[in-house]
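agent> Task received from the user: take the single chain below, predict its 3D structure, and emit structure tokens. No templates, no multimer pairing.
agent> Plan: (1) validate residues, (2) run structure prediction, (3) serialize to tokens, (4) report one or two observations.
agent> Step 1 OK, no nonstandard residues flagged.
tool_call: predict_structure(input=
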Amino acid sequence: MRKIGEYLNQTLCGLEELRGAGVIHRDIKPDNLMIIDDDLIKIIDLDLRTIQGKEKMTIPGMQVGSPFYAAPEQEDDPEQADERADLYSVGIIAYRLFTGRLANQRQKSIPPPSRDTAEFNREWDEFLLKSICTKSRDRYQSAKEMRLQLQSICRPYSLGSAGPP
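)
tool_result: status=success, residues=165
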């Protein structure tokens, strides 16, 4: 549990830094999170990114992101996807890491992680389910907000609390 929390924390710190530089990744998935020396997460493959509102891809209506990890708005209206799409992807990764299953948004309701294991409590359920809400307005609104909530939940596991410089 602690290791997963550390990886998620590092990923959210990386997304904070990208956002601070005006970058939205738009393809966060396990293949684009690389574990390097010292057990650090690096976000890689910025080919689908948006920089300061300028679309890198020029094909109108082209779906952006990877199946299973892309936020619903990336399929419905890729040009309108913002930072919250990256947070959705982190939420899907987190749900999978903690439950061993991909969250399937086509289901009427996604089972809370506490259904399968006693390690999870209501806070974890709320954190994970909020991060993968189908409506972006119902998700965390920034990587910092999501990271601070994660750190609050993980406090017993002594997660690093430092954010981006």
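agent> Step 4: summary for the user.
The domain at 2-48+64-157 is CATH 1.10.510.10 (Transferase(Phosphotransferase); domain 1).
agent> Done.
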